[in-house]
Automatic annotation (TrEMBL):
Keywords for this protein: Membrane, Transmembrane, Transmembrane helix
Regions that span the bilayer: 37-59, 79-98
Coiled coil stretches, renumbered: none
Protein name: DUF4112 domain-containing protein
Keyword Transmembrane set for record: yes
Length: 118
């Protein structure tokens, strides 16, 4: 049974995803980026540091009862985001467009809304 606690976890995941992927806007454009992209420009460790909030979002999804299929898709998004970020400059630009944390928060929302109506 889906409760308010599950949706509180979703709200935390969405808030963190916005900080990581959409916190800032390039002036005069619709391009948004977050702390994930900023961490990503730090050579060597930036993309690995950005994994920690991503892992937390997956942990929130697990705590909200998301099935293994959803958790695996979220993990794939996280690993792909990390891998993309390994390529200097090109990876940083692609990382801004990929927004793995936003994708993962949406996966959790889709699961919870579907489970609530089932």
């Amino acid at each position: 049974m889906i409760t308010d606690k599950h949706f509180q976890r979703l709200e935390r995941a969405e808030r963190l995803a916005r900080l990581m992927d959409r916190a800032f806007r390039v002036p005069g454009t619709q391009i948004r980026f977050g702390w994930d992209a900023i961490f990503g420009v730090i050579p060597g460790i930036g993309d690995s540091v950005a994994l920690l909030p991503s892992l937390y979002i997956i942990g929130l999804a697990r705590g909200a009862g998301a099935p293994m299929s959803v958790l695996l898709e979220m993990a794939w998004n996280m690993v792909l985001d990390w891998f993309i970020g390994l390529f200097p400059l090109v990876g940083d630009v692609l990382d801004i467009g990929f927004k793995a944390n936003i994708r993962n928060a949406r996966l959790l929302r889709t699961y919870l809304e579907g489970a609530r109506t089932a």
